[in-house]
Amino acid sequence: MKRAGAFYQLVYHFTWSTKNRLPLITKEVRPRLYAYIGHKCKELGYRLYAVGGTEDHIHVLLSLRPTDVVADVARRLKGASSHYINHESGLDATLYWQDGYGVVTLRHAEIPKVVQYIRNQQEHHRKKILMEALEPGS
């Protein structure tokens, strides 16, 4: 990406878990949650590559601008998404996130591999084929 004479490729893989690792991301919550995170990323100017997870944690892969603060990105996405599910989604569901988050940087060439990993979270966890560096609590 280019911005006013600067070139950058800032790709981040975020993970965070539900409060006490409870299975709060149900089949009903999942599509609304993922769509809302996509909407929020667009609104905030983040380029979202993939969002996915299991019942007790989520993965978000995105590109940021040099002016974006990583801690603010996690705080905004976590806060906005739980508020949306709890108060605006129309679902009879609650979603609370655990304090903290994990984040790793990636090379641009790793994006396709990590996108596939995120999109297939349910299967990876069922078969226990995990990329430890990309899992919360690893």
Q: Key features?
A:
alpha+beta; Alpha-Beta Plaits; two-stranded antiparallel sheet; 138 residues; four-stranded antiparallel β-sheet; globular
Summarize the helices and strands and which ones pair or pack:
Elements: E1 2-3, E2 6-7, E3 11-17, H1 29-44, E4 47-54, E5 57-63, H2 70-88, E6 102-106, H3 111-119, H4 121-127
Antiparallel strand pairs: 1-2, 3-5, 3-6, 4-5
What does this structure look like?
- The protein is α+β, with helices and mostly antiparallel strands and 138 residues long.
- It has helices at residues 29-44, 70-88, 111-119, 121-127, and strands at 2-3, 6-7, 11-17, 47-54, 57-63, 102-106.
- It has a single domain (2-134), classed as Transposase IS200-like (Alpha-Beta Plaits), CATH 3.30.70.1290.
- 37% of the residues lie in helices and 22% in strands.
- The strands form two sheets. It has a four-stranded antiparallel beta sheet, sandwiched between helices. A two-stranded antiparallel sheet has the order 1-2.
- The protein is globular and about 50 Å long.
Strand order of the largest sheet: 4-5-3-6
Radius of gyration: 15 Å
User: How can the largest sheet be summarized?
Assistant: 4 strands, antiparallel
Q: What is the averaged pLDDT score?
A: 89
Per CATH, the class reads Alpha Beta
Please report the number of helical segments: 4
Q: Distance between the terminal alpha carbons, to the nearest Å? A: 31 Å
CATH architectural type: 2-Layer Sandwich
H-E string: EEEHEEHEHH
Query: For the record, what is the CATH homologous superfamily label?
Result: Transposase IS200-like
Helix content: 25-40%
SS content category: alpha+beta
Approximate strand percentage: 15-25%
> How many domain units?
1
What is the CATH fold-level name? Answer: Alpha-Beta Plaits
Number of strands: 6
